[in-house]
Every structure is written in structure tokens, then in C-alpha cells.
Amino acid sequence: MQIWPDTYTEWIAQCTGRNALAQYAEHANTYVLWFIDGPVTYRFKLSKDPSADLTDWETNHKDDANQPNQPRTGEGTPISANLSLKKTIGLPDPVTADGYEVFTDVHASTVSVAVNVKTSPTGTDPTLQFRIDQLDPADDVTPIGEPVEGGELDAQGNEILTLQIPGTSTVKVSWTVGGIAPSFGSVGATLVGKGSPASTAVNAEGVLEIVGTVPEGGVYNGFPLVTAGLDNAGLVHAIYADSSGRLTVNTIAPAPAGAIEVQVNAEGSVTGSSFLDTFYTITDGYALTLTRMGGSSQKAGKASQVVLFEDPNGDLSVLNTINIPIILMAKSQSEALVSEFTGDGTRRVVLRRERLDGNPTTMTAFFSGFEQEL
Q1: In Å, what is the CA distance from 77 to each residue of 20, 29, 188, 245?
Q2: Distance from C-alpha of 137 to C-alpha of 143, rounded to nearest angstrom
Q3: Can you give the pLDDT of all 374 residues of the chain as single tens digits?
Q4: Which of the residues 83, 160, 210, 263 has the least number of beta carbons within 10 Å of its own beta carbon?
């Protein structure tokens, strides 16, 4: 769900009052501001015309915005129990050449690098790409296992890379620049490590209980898994850190016997400041249950999103948002859904791929579920 406060004063008060992390996309004449609180996204469009609101945003809040969302619980209280590592990566300012940093004695099953490019780079076709390697702890030099590479950052924005590191305690974070005379100023990067999260089993009463640990680096629908299990009805219950950085509980119903599985995919280039829709008409006399959606974007930053709508009239005259838009950051992201719609031969589901800035990029998107005859 999205909420658009009437004034900037109201929006910033909601943001700071919830200890939320402000995000923004900058355009020629406006800033599009948002923050996420649980299932709700609060948005505001701030004009660049001179005003007290603009001065407050650019003076007091802009420099601290677009930070990666950290896992949290309650009203903005950070979770610290599972964070076994947090180290700032020693990047030069500005970043103009390739470099790397090696971290030893890393005691975690999963490491992530959170990158924040706070200002627009200069040069001709400048790019900045990060990579995580696990190294043999015997010599702290020899790479082992498969590395993880981020996207080629070419504008202001951020991304998060995550790598499982079972059996090693040495990690190398490297960065590569491209283009002619590239210069990236005010780049922040942090290495964060997490231990193995807790797992569950279902007791005799059908209640999930924490019993141990899941496999190292457990993931649920693309997000770090905290706990999961099956109840006596065969439903999957999962607790995980979602794209808002908050713990989320979800239940996913498996497709029942005789149901018709539905999978809709979309892929291709989306021009800047525009969107492309893909349509699925729900079969007349059937109920469509949506279980999952997601997508990916070739460009890094927070300028691409995918969102699902219900189109009850089949002509785009009325669009009801099904999910909070998934902001894409040059990697695949997905989330669970539990939504049901009855088909009448007209009602459709609209899968929208959207670019929020003026640059084109290749985007993919999908949703899945099943239909049952009523």
C-alpha cells in the first residue's frame, strides 16, 4: 500500500518519527521521496522550486538518504543479535582507480557489501563495479569458491551484494572502474556479516518452534531467512527480512491437486521515465491465487520497479495495487503473495515494469500462482 502525505512537513515528520531510512530519486525539476514502514510505502514529490521545504531536504536529510535498509524490529529498533561483523571498506575519495581490501578473521556464514554512491560520477561513460571473493585462509590470497559481482554502477544509487562463505574466514572486496577519466566521489561501502539464522519445527499442536539452525546462508524468496517450517496442513510458514528491512511472516499455500499453474513472464528494454505492461486475463469461472512475483533490472540504483495491479474492467480505467512496488537494484528480487481474484472473462492482472528516471534499461518481471474452477 502507498500513502502520499499532503505536505513535505507531514512526510518528513512521519519518516523521522518512525526512525525510517529516507530514499529518493532526483529528476530535473523534482525529488521523488519515499520510505518504507512495514507493508506501507510513504511517498512525496518535492519540487525543486526554491522553498523552505527544499532547503530542509537538501541541508538536513539528503546526504543521509539512500542508505541500505538494515534489518529492524519494532519501531525502528535495529536487530543486533545476528550481526557478527560490520566493517567500513577503505575506499579513496574520489574513487578513480581499481582497488581492493582483504578482511581476515571473518566469522560469519553470509557476508554482504552495501554500496552507496551519494553523488553523480564524472568522466565519459564512468562505471564502478564491486566484487566479493572468498579466499583460502591458509594464505589469504588464493580465491576459492564462486565470487559475487555487482552491477556496473553508472549513476547515483546503491546496491547490496551477498555471498555465502562456508569454510572460510577471509574475504576480499574489490572494485573496478571503467570509462574515460572516471571519478566517483562520496562512495560509501560497508561489509556486514551474519551468522546462521534459527530454524523451526512444528510441534504436536501444529505450532512452529525454534529448534536449531537452517543451512548457512538460508534464503527465502530472495531474502535472508530467519526461520521456516511446514504446519500440519502442509502450508509453508516463513519469517524473513523483507525488502523494507523488517521481519515479515508469510504463509504460502501450495497449488492444490487439479489446479492449473499460472506463470507470466516479461522481458525487454524499458525506455526512461516510462513503463511497459503485460496482461493476464483471469479465466471466466475460475479463481486465480497469486503466490509470488519479482523481477530484475540491468542498471543499478533505485530507478526501476515492478508492481502488480488488478484491472477489474479490463481496460486500465481502474487499477488496484496488489503489492508494494519492488525497487530493483541490478539484481533479481522477489516476494511472496497471498492474493485471490475471481475471473469473469474481463478482469485482468497487470504486470508493470517501470523506469523512474530518464535512462533506458533491460528489465525482467514475473508473477506466478494457480487457477481453480469455482
Answers
A1: 10, 35, 23, 11
A2: 10
A3: 467 788 999 899 888 877 778 888 778 888 888 887 655 677 888 999 999 999 999 999 988 887 655 444 333 333 333 334 678 888 999 999 999 999 887 766 678 888 889 899 999 999 999 999 988 877 888 888 888 998 899 998 888 888 877 645 689 999 999 999 999 998 988 888 765 434 444 444 444 444 333 333 344 444 444 444 444 444 445 554 444 445 555 544 455 667 888 889 888 888 888 999 999 999 988 888 887 888 888 765 557 889 999 999 999 999 988 877 777 765 567 776 767 788 888 999 999 998 887 788 888 888 888 888 87
A4: 263
Q: What is the dihedral of CA 198, 201, 206, 208, to 10 degrees?
A: 0
Domain boundaries, the chain: 2-65, 77-194, 198-252, 260-373
CA distance 332 to 298: 10
CB 192 within 8 A of CB 114: yes
Q: Which superfamily does 260-373 belong to?
A: Nucleoplasmin core domain (2.60.120.340)
Distance of alpha carbon 262 from the chain centroid: 24
Which residues make Cβ contacts (< 8 Å) with residue 104, sequence separation at least 6?
Answer: 137, 140, 169, 170
Q: Do domains 77-194 and 260-373 have the same CATH topology?
A: yes
- Residues in Cβ contact with 253 at an 8 Å cutoff, skipping those fewer than 6 apart: 235, 289, 291, 338
Report the side by side order of strands in the sheet with 23-26.
2-3, 40-47, 30-37, 23-26
Q: Give the span between the Cα atoms of 75 and 17, in whole angstroms.
A: 9
Q: Which pairing describes strands 333-342 and 247-252: parallel, antiparallel, or unpaired?
A: unpaired
CATH of domain 77-194: 2.60.120
